[in-house]
Amino acid sequence: MPTTLINSIYIIVSILSIFLYIMSVQFKDKKNILITQIFASICYLIIYIIKGAWAGVSIEVLEESKDVIFIEYEKRNKKIPFIILTLFIILLFVFTFIFYDGPGSLLPLIINIILFVSTYFKNPKWIRYVMVLCGFLWGCYNIYVGAHIILIGNVLEIVSAIISIARFKEVDNKPVKKRRKKKTAKK
After folding, report:
1. What residue segments make up the domains of the chain, in order of their start?
2. Residue 43 and residue 50: Cα distance in Å, rounded?
């Protein structure tokens, strides 16, 4: 592919990934957050393929798989088995070992362990809080791999997460079971 076409794809997909990821935490429920993050991860996957950042590629594939499985548990209103979380974390270590290309490739491992644990919990407030920290860490990784457009997105991700924390503070501090009972009572 010509360089200008690749650069155009990179820019368009970068902007789309930024938009999807920063908007994901503006949803109230965890299922919609995860669905939006799947589409953002697909965009990030394309970006990391273009950049040749194979640790990032493998982690994004794992991230998408985890989100799909966690969404299925959310739909059924069931707790995600701890063994599934453990399996994904083990796979993170395996992928990081396979695609290790220096200390910078350890950042996606650290970030995704934190993200995976935050999505394990029912209350979406943990996803919002963790996005602030992970936005900073992803920014460091994107500097390392030269994905500078995505770095802008990381700053916006942090801002969006802070806004959503403030927006949903009252809702997020209620126990999940109380929120669900109230929701079903309105039907």
Report:
1. 3-185
2. 11
User: Phi first, then psi: what are they for 121, rounded to 5°?
Assistant: -75, 150
Distance CA 65, CA 70 (A): 9
From the number of C-beta atoms within 10 Å of its C-beta (0-12, 13-18, 19+), residue 135 rates as buried
Nearest C-alpha neighbor of 128 from the set 172, 66, 64, 183: 172
**157: which 2 tokens?**
């991700």
User: From the CA atom positions of the chain, what is the Rg in Å?
Assistant: 17
**pLDDT at residue number 146:** 81
Q: What is the pLDDT of residues 137-148, one digit of tens each?
A: 988 888 887 878
Reported as half-sphere exposure (CB side, CA atoms, 13 A), residue 130 has a value of 17
- The amino acid present at 96, given as its one-letter code, is T
Pick from 87-91, 112-116, 151-155 the range whose average pLDDT is largest: 87-91
Question: How many angstroms separate the CA atoms of 127 and 55, rounded?
Answer: 22
